Amino acid sequence: MASQTPLADELGKISKEEFNRFLQDFRPVEAKAIASLNDSTVQTSMGAAQGDAIRARESLARMRERYGAGLTPDQAAGEARQNSLSGALGVATAGNNAYLADRDNREQTLAGLMNTGQIVRQQALGNWT
Question: For residue range 10-38, what is the model confidence (pLDDT) as tens digits?
């Protein structure tokens, strides 16, 4: 139905086309970004920290073997205790850092998506006026 104001009709048509283009081009990317926010890096980070601790102990053992250094039973027990404590602390730290990074990423991504949606809304309303 045509109105008495063809210019308003044309602006309405342009706004609708822009919104449809947003739905077609941006909405799938937006949905994919939101779905990816559920992915967590905590387990990966904690596993990497465990692997790093193991590699560090293996490297130390190779260096001792290369240079002929040995440990007394008391030194070995103290080192085992220290490795256990530092390994646990490293894993906990890695998990905590990954949790915080995931949370920050989630908040920044959602804020960016909200900002984009706000811009699209403002542009559409601007065209209507």
Answer: 877 887 888 888 888 888 888 888 888 88
